[in-house]
Structures are given as structure tokens and as C-alpha cells.
Amino acid sequence: MSTECRQLESILQGPGGRKIVVRNDGEATSSDGGLLLLGEIERQRHFVQALAKCCVDYRNPERITFSLEELLKQRIFGICQGYEDLNDHEEWRNDPLLNIVCSRKNDEGAMAGKSTLNRIELGVFGEAQDDRYHRIEWDKDAIRGVFVDAFIASYETPPEEIILDFDATDDPVHGEQEGRFFNAYYDEYCFLPLYVFAGEHLLSATLRSADIDGAAESTPTLAFLVNRIRESWPDTKIIVRADSGFCRDDFLAWCETHDVFYILGLARNDRLIRKLSKAMGEARREFIRTTHVARVFKEFRYRTRNSWSRTRRVVGKAEHMEKGPNPRFVVTNLDVALWPARELYEDLYCARGDMENRIKEQQLYLFADRTSCHPFRANQFRLWLSSIAYLFIVELRRKALQNTEFKHAQASTIRLKLFKVAVTVSISVRRVLLRVPRAFPYWDAWQGCSLAFSTA
Q1: How far apart are CA 33 and CA 432, in angstroms?
Q2: Which residue, among 175, 139, 169, has the nearest Cα to 50 in the 3D structure?
Q3: DSSP β-bridge partners for residue 171
């Protein structure tokens, strides 16, 4: 019979000839005090509970230790705290604070191990009821609705106007996952997820194979979002914004038919360049005169030779820089009286660049690109888990950090300074006592966050 041997002590040389003894046998301690903030957000907004309601659990209730909601909390809170792999949970599941915030009836003992958590992702659609090991399945359309409902619930009153930003990005793969494909533009094997944001709010995250047009599935996704939003906000003006990769006639025509406004990039061609030639000459002369970047805007009516079903309003930006001419075009159905050419391009269209920061935050800090399962469906669920984790970050910024130095902080900064907090945990019959170090430098911000959610 083998025994487990583990090094519990390290001895270092300290000042004054004293030895420094380091042991990892501390009792009832946690390095993740920020779990309390996540638990309070969940208590109010029920993000994980809503996700759990989109799943069907065919496990025998008499033979399970952890409910589906407890498993999802453990997995999503782990992503927020920086534990991207299921392997991390083999040790982290012993964290006493994790047990408490996952609402375990028995607040002692370890949470689920990696094998149990893995069964959530590997549910077999339509077969879970008869599968021996993977007895949890989920409803795709229901989960898509969770993000829209969370966005709507973040407003006390309907907004007059919202802007939906569409964008695609690459998600590199390094194995033989289902749906992987070599994409020549990104020069790698990858997936091509489609994201939709409204400001910093995430409304949709759809995993796609990379062997498709970048605008694939964008029209049905838009239809789903608009119909869902208008059920609650029938009078809200909706504007769709995207780069030229989404400038497809079916997308534009759907917007025009359903009273949705759009502004999209338009890929340049010889006909468009000729229409902008006079303005380009003006910009060049202005650059020569001032030696500063010069912009001249011109708008006109335009229709492609074959792909568009109608003539549309196009705005051209004639720009001349030190490196030379830089013409750009956008197409829109917004009223010229409300949005003149320069304001339309500089103030409205260029603002879409912030969405790229939101996507980077998802992939770099919340592990949305950790799609290493073999089944494509399981990787889609992983993407949603990271997306739910993102909702917690947005809610914390929106409700508790607006008047602090962290109001624009990314998930990595929030994790480092507010979530990764060492606490000691004392559990008794009547209460749970947590002690934060006196030297914790962000105590004021942390306490402000806890009060913002605990008093609501």
C-alpha cells in the first residue's frame, strides 16, 4: 500500500541568524477572500442560479453529494479567482471559504474534484438521461437568454438608446478538437467565436468553427437579441455597430426591415476610392500645409454591383498621414440630421474599438480561450462559464467600484487587489468569522464593495 509523502516545511535563512520556517499546514485559512464578494453578487443577481435552471440534471438525488448549482458556483468562482484548469480544483476544493460561498448545507469538508466538475461540460445532448457518467445536459437557447436578461436587469428604467457591438476573434487550438480549422487570416488552427457587447455588458458569446465567413450566424443572433430586448424595452432605440466583416446584405436588410439602426465598416474598392478622390486631394493639400494628419469627410449614396439589394448612405473618410493616404468608409441608415458625417465616423463608429478591450479581458484574464475539450459542445459550455464569470466582474465595477480607483480596472487588477485576499476562517454554530490582515492595502475599497452588496 503506497503512502502519500508531501513536503510540509521549508527552512530559510533569516536576518540576525534566525531561521525562517515555512509550513503549508495552516488550518482554516484562505487565499481567496474575494469569494465573499462573488457570493454576495450571486445572492443578489443569481447569475449562476439562472445558468443552472438552463440545465437538466438526471443524476439520482439520493446518490449525489453536490447539487448542480453548487458545482457551477465552484467552477465559475474558480475562474474569477484565477483557477482556469479543472486540475486546480483538486487542491483548491479544500478552501474553507469556497465551501461557505457555494451555499453548502454542510459547511465542512471539501468541494467537488476535477472528475465531478468535468461531467458538467461533457453532457451529451439528448442522451444524458441514459448515459452512465454524463447525466447533465443544457439548453443552448435558454443559456443565450441568461445574458440578455442579466443586461436588462442591470437597468432600473429602460434606456432611450443602446448600441450593440458585433465582433469576431480567433481562439487558437492546440489539439484535435472538433470544429477546429485552419484560418488563413489568423494563420493558425482556431475557433472563431462571435461576441456581442452593449458597452461593457456581454450579450452573446457563440463558439464557431473557423471555416466560415466572419459574419456567419450574425443575423440570427441579432434577431434573437433584438426580439428579446424589445419584449422588455419596446421603445428603446437600437443601433448595431461592427466592422466591415459584418457588412452583408442580409444583415443590413434585416435591420432596415425591423427598425434597427446600423453603422458598419465598408471595405474599400476602386469605385469607392474614385468617389472620394476629390476629398483625398483636399486632405493631401492640408497635410502638406500643416504637416499634421488631415481628414476630410464626404457622404454619398452607393450600391454595390451585385451583393446589395438597395442603395444606401455611405460616409467616406479621406485621411492623409505621414505614411500616406488612408481612406475609410462606413455604411449607415442613421439620419444625417442627427449624425453628420464627421461626428458619425469619429464619435460613433470609432468608439467600437473599446469592444476589443472587453474581448481581450475575456480571453486573457477569464480564460474564454481555454477550449481544450475534444467535443465542440463542451468547449461552447466552457466559453459560457467564462462569460458568466465576466458578468460578476461587470457587476462589481458597475455597482461597487464607480467611485473608487478601480472603476475602470480590468479583471486581472480586480483579481489581484480585491479577490486574492488572505483571510483566516473561524466557523462556529452561530457565525462565520473572517479575519483580514491589518496590512491589507485595499481594505477601504474591499469593505466598500462588501457593503454595496450586503446592504442592498
Answers
A1: 13
A2: 139
A3: 191
Q: Is the pLDDT of residue 215 over 60?
A: yes
Statement: the pTM of the whole predicted model exceeds 0.90: yes
CB 449 within 8 A of CB 414: no
pLDDT tens-digit series, residues 394-452? 999 999 999 999 999 999 999 999 999 999 888 787 888 888 999 999 999 999 998 89
Residue-range domains of the chain with CATH: 29-138+366-454 (no CATH), 141-362 (3.90.350.10)
Sole residue written with cell 448549482: 69
What integer is the mean pLDDT of 336-352? 96
Q: Cell 465598408 sits at which residue? A: 266
Residues 6+ apart with CB under 8 A from 2: none
